[in-house]
Amino acid sequence: MQDDLVHKIKSNPKYHELVSKRNSFKWIMAVIMLVVYYAFILTIAFDKEFMAQPLSAGSVTTIGIPLGIAVIVFAFVLTGIYIQRANAVFDRLNREIKEEVL
Questions:
Q1: 75, CA 20 to 30 Å: which among 1, 34, 50, 82?
Q2: 102 and 19 in contact (C-beta within 8 Å)?
Q3: Which domain does 69 fall in, by range?
């Protein structure tokens, strides 16, 4: 029974569409996050003067602090985008596959 069900799912064109869309989207999101993260790290490594500038005259908080917080917030935003896409597209395809196979 299980082998038959697995074969039905794997031969369904919507399953291939789901896998393809999910994989391409996750790689795009991962690359975007890596670019943002490594841009921040490389800026720390190679432009210390920029990151060490105070936010305002007499301030002890440097530009690096809000930029670091922005990287973290950006990660949360990307997570929210992925969740929205998963709920809107991936779950719909998953439901359609279940309806066709079962």
A1: 50
A2: no
A3: 2-101
Cβ 29 vs Cβ 78: under 8 Å: yes
The pair of structure tokens assigned to 58 is 């007499």
Domain count, the chain: 1
pTM above 0.90, yes or no: no
Distance from the Cα of residue 96 to its chain's centroid: 24
User: How far is 83 from 2, CA to CA, in rounded Å?
Assistant: 30
